[in-house]
Amino acid sequence: xxxxxxxxxxxxxxxxxxxxxxxxxxxxxxxxxxxxxxxxxxxxxxxxxxxxxxxxxxxxxxxxxxxxxxxxxxxxxxxxxxxxxxxxxxxxxxxxxxxxxxxxxxxxxxxxxxxxxxxxxxxxxxxxxxxxxxxxxxxxxxxxxxxxxxxxxxxxxxxxxxxxxxxxxxxxxxxxxxxxxxxxxxxxxxxxxxxxxxxxxxxxxxxxxxxxxxxxxxxxxxxxxxxxxxxxxxxxxxxxx
Length: 241
What we know:
Elements: H1 3-12, H2 17-33, E1 39-43, H3 49-56, E2 60-65, H4 68-76, E3 82-84, E4 98-104, H5 113-123, E5 124-135, H6 143-148, H7 156-165, E6 169-176, H8 181-190, H9 192-198, H10 207-225, E7 234-240
Parallel strand pairs: 1-2, 1-4, 2-3, 4-5
Antiparallel strand pairs: 5-7, 6-7
């Protein structure tokens, strides 16, 4: 990750609609499938904001990230069990000790995502599992993705193939962020030069618009549970060993 994007995460993750909506969706899934107490490990934790959320929910938390800047920032926020680590290497977590592992918008950054999934699996206890999210629609791959260091965007079939190749099983798979798909399609298809010039930044929004989008995401989460969304900018999966 570009250090400039890390700083943007630090600046925005607390209140920006996309980060808030994704965090609340993941909280819902984790509490439903792998409720606390227990150890939660996040691979590629970025600013560490999610770890603080899960710590407040009653999990013991640990985090792994390839960027020393991420680890330094997380430690400055009071998170002690965070380490610089390449997720394609065996995780420095006692095998079978974790209740749940998170890989949130991480696999697309990794050249060998199956290896990362296998190492995450080794850290998870029997009866535990994993929650992950990835960007959808390979046709939307653009300068935005290149600037962020993405290797790919996903189809449901490709995500399923990688999960199965890691000897894991899908407990639930869905989509989220359908309501911003039209705007994303327009910006990615016709605004590629802006991504390379300005970086892959989230557009700043008026407070009322930001709150409206958080509300849209709250309504969407009800549909995600049942019957599910036919479209969405991201794929989400709950995985068991």
